[in-house]
Amino acid sequence: MARASRPPRSRGGEDLFAGLPVVARPPVDDGAPAPARLAVRSVWISDLHLGTPGCQAHALLDFLKSVESRHLYLVGDIIDGWQLRRSWYWPQAHNDVVQKLLRKARKGTRVVFVPGNHDEFARKYLGHNFGGIEVVPDCIHVTADGRRLWITHGDHFDGVIQCAPWLAHVGDAAYEFTLRLNRWFNSLRARVGLPYWSLSKYLKLKVKRAVSFIGDFEQAVAREARKRGVQGVVCGHIHHAELREIDGILYANDGDWVESLTALVEHADGRLEIVDWSGRASSARTARASLPDSDDAEAGAVAVTAVRTETA
Questions:
Q1: In the chain, how many domains are there?
Q2: pTM, to two decimals
Q3: In CATH, what number is assigned to the domain containing residue 177?
Q4: Is a pLDDT exceeding 50 seen at residue 309?
């Protein structure tokens, strides 16, 4: 397990992100009104896939600016090393996200990074601290009401990743093609005032094998959590936000920032909730579509939708 009595060894923040321009200019202040603050005890985000065109970095940065927490867990696939090896893609918005994470760590938020399969390069640095960000294989979080949650990305429970990694890379390329098609389709929807719609998410929920894979994955992760003697598990990997109980184990998946734009948060009393940021992001996309000469146009404040909350 990743819990240690002594803090991880500290190294410069640039070492972990070698080759990435993480010290470029700070994010531009476009003069938009400051968003309402979301004050919580803990936040979990995963599957950002920085370094890919599919990453919705503007929405993610808006979320990070709007939330304050004591703990911030980065639950894998933060930087997409697979995609960056195929072709380099690193716009300023992705740089701004990295800078914001480092800034949160400097200002006192405990930031913990659990690498996934797409950023497996970071597993070489387990036990180190980069710019205040701890890198661990997995860890235990204790909620305000005393529950122990196991934090893991979840790729170790994906049979394709473990048994046929070449097939995983083929599937990743097909997924990226679907996302490109989805971006083109949604740019048209935004221009006529329609909200964002995820083609890949629709296909996953309609294809019987994909639905079966999600169910098998959730059951496998919950079984492992039970073996470890914890009350729940938080993971990512499958880009499917969920918060429910599986055979007495709390299963929480924080979703992703490519399609669903979701995060898991813990309130001061220990209650967990999945926050859906897609409504706010859709409004911002519509505003940018109506002002094509400005990449930084922002829509007005939009209420955040909580898609799932723990039942009492």
A1: 1
A2: 0.74
A3: 3.60.21.10
A4: yes
